[in-house]
Design a protein that fits this description.
The protein is α+β, with helices and mostly antiparallel strands. 55% of the residues lie in helices and 6% in strands. The protein is built from 16 helices and 4 strands. It has a 4-stranded mixed beta sheet, with helices on both faces. The protein is elongated.
Length: 333
């Protein structure tokens, strides 16, 4: 991962280098203007950083001062970037309310990378980097308006806490990107899933109960997502089929049980990691598995979250499939 902090070496205009060079040469701004065929005002604007150094100007300066044109152009680009970043930081100073809308657990869990300095850490820049969006407005447009609808046919505008929900969804994307999988395609995945379904049901039958050490659902845990042997085994079993399974801590304000979607051409089943009962986990898993088996790639299904424009017939079909699998695994449904 490229670590691109909001700090640059060049925080002054390249005209400062030119001013130092002509002083070393025993020239002044009027001499430089005459040698370049420019007006004294134009040269003063360049030296003071009020005017950008263009390729034509850089080559003319190289002819007179012997400062390489590519050095001046790189310096100008870096200075432009510095100014732009400063403007961006300034524009984000009044976004504290947006940042405060997200769950405090994000900091406790360390999902959001700390900033390079205290000023950045207190801003919303680390949160924007977490979501991979350029601004709070872009976040709002992607997760609550048309852009997300185009990608997944849903909007988070209607859910109780779209901020926590979006963080949970994004966490799954980040974990997925850290562990790439082979893209098998929908027909191949469905074929493999049908063949492996008896093995998955048998695995569920052998893992009906939570281990004694497992705690109930908690919302304030600083450690990484808790995954026990059953969860790990299920992940490995599904990975062979071409399905990614993730266990991700949810939030008290957005208690999502599970999600189905295709992410970067790989089917993703995302579950939360602290179910009170193992049978609840298995029912949720089989429900999401039904979406992989029967439903398309364009869409996203969230369990335990009200989204009125989800397709109820698909949810009913997924529930029937989950009940059938649970009965075959020996659960009381």
């Amino acid at each position: 991962m490229i670590d691109n902090d909001f700090k640059l070496a060049v925080e002054f205009p390249p005209g400062r280098d030119v001013a130092e060079k002509i002083e070393e040469m025993g020239l002044d701004a009027n001499d430089l203007a005459a040698r370049m065929g420019y007006t004294p005002k134009a040269i003063n604007d360049i030296l003071q950083g009020h005017c950008r150094i263009t390729p034509d100007v850089a080559i003319a300066l190289e002819m007179v001062t012997e400062i390489p044109a590519d050095y001046l152009l790189r310096s100008q680009m870096s200075y432009d970037e510095y100014l732009t970043r400063e403007r961006v930081k300034k524009s984000l100073e009044n976004q504290s309310l947006w940042k405060q809308s997200f769950p405090e657990e994000l900091d406790v869990r360390e999902w959001v990378r700390k900033g390079a300095d205290m000023a950045e850490d207190k801003s919303c820049l680390p949160l924007l980097k977490f979501f991979a969006v350029a601004s709070p407005k872009a976040w709002d447009g992607y997760y609550k308006k048309a852009q997300l609808k185009v990608a997944f046919r849903i909007s988070l505008a209607e859910v109780k806490d779209p901020y926590a929900t979006s963080a949970w969804i994004r966490r799954g994307e980040i974990l997925s990107d850290q562990d790439p999988m082979e893209k098998l395609g929908q027909p191949a995945v469905r074929k493999k899933l049908k063949a492996a379904l008896p093995e998955i049901i048998a695995f569920a039958a052998a893992n009906k109960k939570l281990p004694k050490r497992e705690k109930r659902i908690t919302y304030w845990t600083p450690e990484a997502e808790v995954v026990d042997d059953c969860m790990t085994g299920l992940q490995e079993l599904c990975r062979k089929i071409g399905i990614r399974v993730l266990f991700v801590q949810n939030f008290k304000s957005s208690p999502i049980h599970g999600m189905y979607r295709w992410y970067k051409d790989v089917p993703l089943i995302q579950l939360h990691d602290r179910f009170k009962k193992r049978e609840t986990m298995w029912f949720t898993f089989f429900h999401e598995l039904a979406h992989v088996l029967y439903h398309g790639k364009k869409g996203i299904c969230l369990q335990n979250i009200e989204i009125t424009h989800n397709y109820p017939e698909k949810e009913d079909e997924a529930n029937c499939f989950a009940q059938k699998c649970m009965l075959e695994a020996g659960f009381d449904v």
